[in-house]
Design a protein that fits this description.
556 residues; alpha/beta; seven-stranded mixed β-barrel; 18 helices; 24 strands
Length: 556
């Protein structure tokens, strides 16, 4: 399959979003921090400093909303999520619906899975327990035996959902599964987590179910020392990943095979991370196995920088900070898990600026459908044409690549080489002296119907069309002279403030053309040309912008 055939295949494939919306109202795992959002800066300026943007500062636990649970959640010596390649997060798999066979505190077994769908060695396995019906964004579930005649959402979702039988994880290891994902609060049975100790009355009910099902007590079914070794040593060392709180369109895939993609944020220091999850199925009338065969011969280049406390933030924004709130050894027999609370502003590491970052009437990042974030596009390398504080033009793009109307456009300036994790790191040059677009660039993007853009430096704007102009007057003088040399005019003649301040934000976001910043990692391997491009951005319902996992697809 050549590049154009691959792009057409992915364009025509059915993409389904298996991600639960993330909100202030999303309940966290019991005892952990719910999502908190604070505006520290607005378009008109605020006490946080600076003009010209809606800037958000958030606090969160990674176990809130759809997320991947990394090996370090249980085994501190295992890989960080930043070390997990895309090949371990994506691949063939199956969504198995066991909702007809499970109930409160119950168990799903390997037999329940294999009698409903084919599971192959090395698959990603998604289990639809039906308990996403209790998710915060779903309608109430009626139950006349409950208070107010409805199920308690949080108890149903986190405390009462079914979990794996005693032989389930050993079976998963024997099948060499890449990942087990579930549509409820935990991939473990809730009574094999700290919920057992938080809700003793609920544990009594679960114990009764265990006795009725197996004729054994809980500790006979799950001997603590053996269970601890299995889940906190054997499974992580085998590389088995878990994912929790899936939702979205999961019911449309019951007992069907799909190509599954888990776009987890590549966190360096913590154990779990937010994730956007998609399932691909063959175009209508096409053979699913042919799609799998084509994708198995496809290379995914990861354009996402590692997410770390070392990542420099945009000027006057809040850096990432992490505080561990619990550790693996914090419960009897080590049945706890590592968990951190995090704080950051969005404009660090690889992220997508959303409409509401600059356009008050725009969509939040979570209101944008998955279809917007993927599609045909181009990578174009203009690094030989740009230098410190210089200006690039639409003609530089048109001269180098087969750009088509409606494409996603990713621009390589070469500034990725100066990023924080590069051997040639130069933070001042990366943040303050990167090149930026010419005054006709935004109008050209509208004319060419660009879907969204991405850049391998800290901002899609020229830094001197931002607050950096005021913060770095010496650099502005250098940029101004370069503009005079290139255009014969000074900065304010070429970029009148009222029209071009934050041009790529204020003039494009109301047109629905947003952009990703700080692309990196394997972008150096992406030669100029056409690709299929995808951004897996978290579905944050109150968030103006957000981090994500960014990739391009090409034939091997």
């Amino acid at each position: 399959m050549d590049r154009e055939e691959l792009i057409n295949t992915l364009s025509q494939s059915r993409w389904l979003d298996l991600t639960q919306p993330l909100s202030l109202f999303t309940p966290p795992f019991p005892g952990e921090m719910p999502l908190q959002v604070h505006f520290f800066k607005r378009l008109t300026g605020a006490y946080g400093g600076g003009q010209g943007a809606n800037g958000q500062f958030i606090e969160w636990s990674n176990n809130t909303g759809t997320h991947v649970v990394g090996q370090r959640a249980f085994h501190s010596g295992s890989r960080a999520l930043a070390d997990v390649p895309l090949t371990d997060l994506c691949g063939p798999g199956v969504v198995v619906d066991v909702s007809d066979a499970v109930s409160d505190y119950g168990f799903y077994t390997p037999e329940m899975i294999t009698e409903r769908a084919e599971v192959r060695e090395g698959d990603i396995l998604v289990i639809n327990t039906g308990y996403h019906k209790h998710a915060w964004d779903q309608p109430d579930v009626a139950n006349p035996d409950m208070q107010a005649g409805i199920e308690n959402k949080e108890f149903g979702y986190y405390v009462r959902h079914p979990g794996p039988s005693p032989d389930f994880f050993p079976w998963a290891l024997s099948m060499k599964l890449k990942m087990i994902a579930v549509d409820c609060g935990s991939a473990e049975h809730p009574m094999n987590t700290n919920i057992r100790f938080l809700h003793a009355r609920e544990f009594e009910k679960a114990e009764a179910v265990a006795q009725a099902t197996y004729g054994k007590s809980w500790e006979e079914l799950f001997p603590p020392e053996e269970y601890q070794k299995l889940t906190h040593i054997t499974m992580p060392k085998a590389g088995l990943l878990l994912a929790e709180s899936l939702g979205g369109e999961i019911d449309e895939l019951s007992n069907q095979r799909s190509w599954l993609l888990f776009g987890a944020i590549p966190f360096m220091e913590v154990e779990s991370a937010w994730c956007r999850v998609a399932a691909l199925q063959a175009p209508e009338g096409a053979d699913q196995e042919e799609l799998f065969a084509a994708l198995s011969k496809t290379e995914m280049l990861d354009l996402t920088l590692p997410f770390s406390v070392q990542t420099p933030q945009w000027a006057n924004y809040e850096p990432l900070s992490i505080r561990y709130t619990k550790r693996v050894g914090g419960l009897d027999f080590g049945l706890g898990r590592n968990n951190a609370h995090c704080k950051a502003s969005f404009h660090l590491a690889t992220h997508m600026d959303g409409e509401k970052h600059f356009w008050a009437a725009g969509r939040t990042i979570g209101e944008v459908p998955l279809d917007y974030w993927h599609g045909p596009g181009v990578v174009v390398d203009i690094s030989e044409e740009v230098s410190d504080c210089s200006v690039y033009t639409p003609q530089m793009i048109e001269d180098r690549v087969d750009l088509r109307d409606g494409d996603i456009l990713l621009i390589k300036t070469g500034w990725n080489a100066y990023g924080w994790n590069s051997p040639d790191s130069d933070e001042f040059r990366y943040m303050i002296k990167h090149p930026g677009p010419s005054p006709d660039f935004s109008d050209w993007c509208i004319e060419r119907k660009i879907k969204w853009l991405g850049i391998d430096c800290v901002a899609m704007e020229h830094p001197m069309n931002t607050i950096q102009r005021l913060m770095h007057p010496k650099t502005f003088a250098e940029a101004n002279q370069k503009l005079v040399d290139q255009f014969g005019k000074d900065w304010d003649e070429v970029f009148p403030l009222d029209k071009y301040y934050q041009d790529m934000h204020l003039n494009l976001f109301p047109k629905g053309i947003v952009h990703a910043e700080n692309l990196g990692n394997e972008i150096a391997k992406a030669e100029t040309g056409r690709y299929y491009v995808a951004a897996f951005v978290q579905r944050g319902m109150e968030l103006a912008s957000c981090w994500g996992r960014f990739m391009v697809f090409r034939e091997q």
